[in-house]
């Protein structure tokens, strides 16, 4: 979800992010998320995920 939202933000607000000199940082964050997802999906039938049963409250 986060990587999708960051990508959408880059598309919708590219000029503002560019003028604020933040576009490169956003692209770096998107790249990190995309690489993480790609590495977790090792073949067509395998996707590694992280699950926790710990209560955070």
From TrEMBL:
Its EC number is 3.2.1.4. Keywords: Carbohydrate metabolism, Cellulose degradation, Glycosidase, Hydrolase, Polysaccharide degradation. InterPro entries: 6-hairpin_glycosidase_sf, 6hp_glycosidase-like_sf, Glyco_hydro_9. GO terms for biological process: cellulose catabolic process. The keyword Hydrolase applies. Residues 1-53 form the Glycoside hydrolase family domain. One of its GO terms (molecular function) is cellulase activity. The keyword Hydrolase applies. It catalyses: Endohydrolysis of (1->4)-beta-D-glucosidic linkages in cellulose, lichenin and cereal beta-D-glucans. Belongs to the glycosyl hydrolase 9 (cellulase E) family. This is cellulase. The lineage of its organism: Eukaryota, Viridiplantae, Streptophyta, Embryophyta, Tracheophyta. The gene is SLEG.1.
């Amino acid at each position: 979800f986060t990587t999708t939202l960051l990508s959408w933000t880059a598309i919708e607000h590219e000029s503002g992010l560019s003028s604020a000199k933040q576009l490169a940082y956003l692209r770096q964050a998107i790249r990190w998320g995309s690489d993480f997802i790609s590495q977790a999906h090792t073949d067509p039938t395998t996707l590694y995920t992280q699950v926790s049963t710990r209560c955070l409250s």
